[in-house]
Every structure is written in structure tokens, then in C-alpha cells.
Specification:
Elements (H helix, E strand, L loop, with lengths): L1 H29 L3 E3 L4 H21 L8 H22 L7 E3 L17 H16 L3 H29 L2 H5 L14
Antiparallel strand pairs: 1-2
Helix pairs in contact: 2-5, 3-4, 4-5
Length: 187
């Protein structure tokens, strides 16, 4: 029963996030924002949908039960949900599942973004590992953790390049990120 409740909670949470993202995308585009990385977005959606299918399938087919350390993993899961909410609240209208860039915007550097650049991606990484481990779904945990790292290895550089080119990102994070348009490799 706990398996159904937790998975249902996360699936409903994702659907609500899609609605929030759609609303934020509409607001941002009305202000002149544009999308970057459209080509990888369908693969990201497929990865996340496949994750839930794999998780549910592995639990059902192999009759997986809660882990002996379930309570600790569940505590980590709850902390991660707190970080997720903090990320969404900190970014406000800038939060999205897509890479939506508003030229001239000041990069958000509050909440968890004071401490590191991509806390929302950390949330996703933790969830993709912890949710399956809570129910001993080891194949799903390993497979989708690796697939998610591959996805982020494409997504994060795209996002950072776009932010460097049209926002104050470089100044805010003092990161040496080269711009493909200006070939600027120095601070």
C-alpha cells in the first residue's frame, strides 16, 4: 500500500509541475523569453515516463518490498521534496521543465541557488536513485541514474551557455563558461 501512495504522490506532483511549467512558460514568453534545447526535451520526457514504468514494472514483476532501510530512504525522500519546493519557490516564474531564457534577466541567486547552481537537478538525481531504492528496485535505480546523468550532461551545458549569452549568469556565478557566439574564454 505504501508503494502505491508514494508513487501516486510523485506522479501527481509531476503533473502539477507540468501545469506550473506551462503557465510559467507562457508568462516568460510574453516577456520575450525563448526556449533552448528543444531537441533533447522529448528524450527527457521519455526518460521520466520510462522511469515510472520501469519502477512500477520492477516492483510488480519481481514483487519488490520496502527496503530494510526504508525509513532512512523515506526521510531522504522527504528532505528532497522540501528542497524541490524551495527551488520552485526561489525561481518563481523562472522555474520550468524546459530551458526558457529571458534575455537581460538577472539570474536568481537566492534560496538554494545561493549555495550551488543547479539544486533542482540535484533533486531529480536524488529522486531517481532513492525512489527505486526505497522498494529494492535496483535495476531501475542503476539504469535511470545513469540515463539521467547522460541527459544532464547535455542539458546543463546548453542551459549554462544560453544563460551566459543573454543574462548576468557569468557575473553571478563567476564561472569561466565559453560562449559559442563570442568565443569568450576568459573572465
Amino acid at each position: 500500500m505504501i508503494i502505491v501512495v508514494i508513487i501516486a504522490f510523485v506522479v501527481i506532483q509531476r503533473l502539477v509541475e507540468v501545469l506550473i511549467a506551462k503557465g510559467n512558460e507562457k508568462k516568460m514568453k510574453a516577456l520575450g523569453a525563448y526556449e533552448v534545447g528543444q531537441s533533447h526535451y522529448p528524450f527527457m520526457i521519455a526518460l521520466h515516463v520510462s522511469f515510472f514504468i520501469s519502477l512500477i514494472g520492477e516492483i510488480l514483476i519481481f514483487n519488490r518490498q520496502p527496503s530494510p532501510i526504508f525509513i532512512w530512504l523515506f526521510a531522504l525522500f522527504l528532505l528532497t521534496q522540501g528542497l524541490r519546493i524551495w527551488c520552485l519557490a526561489s525561481l518563481g516564474q523562472y522555474w520550468n521543465t524546459k530551458i526558457i531564457i529571458l534575455p537581460g534577466a538577472n539570474v536568481v541567486k537566492k534560496g538554494p541557488y545561493l549555495f550551488f547552481r543547479h539544486p533542482n537537478y540535484l533533486v531529480v538525481c536524488i529522486e531517481i536513485l532513492v525512489l527505486p531504492l526505497m522498494f529494492q528496485a535496483y535495476f531501475t535505480a542503476i539504469c535511470f541514474t545513469l540515463l539521467n546523468f547522460a541527459m544532464l550532461s547535455v542539458r546543463i551545458p546548453l542551459e549554462e551557455r544560453a544563460l551566459v549569452e543573454v543574462t548576468n549568469y557569468k557575473d553571478q556565478f563567476k564561472k569561466n563558461v565559453s560562449s559559442p557566439l563570442t568565443n569568450d574564454n576568459h573572465n
